[in-house]
Design a protein that fits this description.
Layout: E1 11-12, E2 15-16, H1 25-28, E3 31-41, E4 45-52, E5 58-61, E6 66-71, E7 74-75, E8 90-98, E9 101-108, E10 120-123, E11 131-137, E12 147-150, E13 164-169, H2 186-203, E14 207-210, H3 220-229, E15 234-241, E16 252-256, H4 263-273, H5 288-294, H6 301-319, E17 330-333, E18 344-351, H7 355-361, H8 364-380
Parallel strand pairs: 3-7, 13-14, 13-15, 15-18, 16-17
Antiparallel strand pairs: 1-2, 3-4, 4-11, 5-6, 5-12, 6-9, 8-9, 10-11, 16-18
Length: 385
């Protein structure tokens, strides 16, 4: 006798065996659980993170003092021990396999109300992390029994309040940045784009600040400090690239990481950091309370939110048919300007070392195209998580 993956009966001699008698998950499950953890977010919110090998399809239900997350087509992993934060609302987490569905039950200290869509986020894989379903919630009056389901949340957020964006035009003053063969200076291109971006973001309902509005030199720590002082929701640092190969062209997007994702990212970070010789080890440039917050940057919400914005921005650029530099959508490196408690990304808008792209970057038409793509990425970014 042999069994087929589609659940059909196979007959050998006089023996007939029904596949249904065996666990369906052995044939149907394609996704798998990789991790469970909780944390505490600002506003006394509990964060539950469910990590899976593939993009999850899920539903939520709310029995008394419980949050149940049902993952379709997913197998349990009993080798995983949930990492629970002591101050979170979750007492314990259990896994229950029900056919090809996995139920993750979070037992709560207090009842909660329905989790709003704006507090649900699906993060793409990055670094050592797989797909992460992120749920933020706090104690509240429970609603009637209900179930919320979705395949993959993609939440477009409009500015229900004036979210604060700090736009950083890289270089400036005595630091021209890279210079194209035609004499185009990076500091001039990014300042022009930054001003256009501020105008369009303000018109879209955001509150936007520039780190510099003229040809001023700023240290990298000063730029990050402006975002901190403005209590920004998002920090966007604009740059233009250069490459030893004159043929290289296209945008690239970076987030902060102590370890560069590749050799090119490492060299770029070293070049950008050399603007004021900031050491990328340690955080002595910042006030003590900021240094303390930075110590958990790679492990907690800021890093995840930066990654989410960067991925969304890359998609926005590609949808606008803006050419991308060969390689991954988002890269990682220890950029000093991104050392902050504010989620952010560094955008290399193109290559001044490429003669055709240098000419393109000088035009209002292309600059507006870049700005429109960035504005869309900001509008689509989930500020509420």
């Amino acid at each position: 006798m042999k069994l087929s993956r589609r659940g059909l009966l196979k007959i050998t001699g006089f023996s007939i065996v029904a596949v249904a008698a065996l666990p369906r998950v052995a044939f149907a499950a394609r996704n798998s659980l990789r991790g469970l953890r909780t944390g505490v977010q600002p506003g006394n919110k509990t964060r539950l993170v469910i990590e899976t090998a593939n993009r999850p399809s899920y539903s939520l239900s709310y029995p008394t003092n419980q949050l149940v997350v049902t993952l379709s087509n997913t197998s349990a992993n009993n080798n995983i021990s949930a990492k629970l934060a002591s101050d979170a609302l979750v007492n314990s987490i259990t896994q229950t396999q029900n056919g090809d569905k996995l139920q993750i039950v979070a037992n709560l200290k207090k009842p909660i109300s329905e989790i709003e869509k704006s507090s649900i986020l699906l993060l793409e894989p990055n670094g050592d992390n797989d797909y992460r379903l992120v749920l933020d919630f706090k104690a509240g009056t429970p609603n009637a029994t209900y179930t919320t389901s979705t395949v993959a949340p993609t939440t477009a957020i409009t500015a229900s309040r004036k979210y604060i964006i700090v736009v950083d035009a890289g270089h400036g003053g005595k630091d021209p940045g890279c210079i194209g063969k035609g004499g185009t200076r990076e500091k001039d291109i990014v300042l022009s784009v930054a001003k256009k971006l501020k105008n369009k973001l303000d018109s879209a309902g955001f509150k936007t600040y520039l780190t510099r509005s003229d040809d001023t030199y700023l240290k990298l720590a000063e730029r990050a400090s402006i975002a901190e002082k403005r209590k920004a929701d998002l920090f966007i640092s604009l740059h233009a690239n250069a490459n030893p190969s004159r043929k290289m062209k296209g945008f690239s997007i970076y987030t902060l990481s102590e370890k560069a994702s590749d050799e090119e990212a490492r060299k770029l970070a070293e070049a950008e950091n050399a603007a004021d010789k900031i050491g990328v080890e340690g955080f002595t440039q910042f006030e003590e309370n900021i240094r303390m917050a930075l110590s958990s940057l790679q492990q907690h919400a800021v890093a995840e939110m930066s990654e989410e914005y960067a991925n969304g921005c890359a998609k926005s650029f590609k949808r606008a048919s803006i050419e991308q530099q060969p390689g991954p959508d988002v890269r990682h490196a220890p950029f000093a300007v991104l050392r902050s408690t504010i989620p952010g990304a560094l955008l290399e808008l193109g290559h001044l070392s490429n003669q055709s792209e240098e000419k393109l970057l000088r035009t209002d038409k292309h600059q507006n195209k870049l700005v429109d793509a960035i504005v869309k990425s900001v509008k689509n970014y989930n500020f509420e998580v």
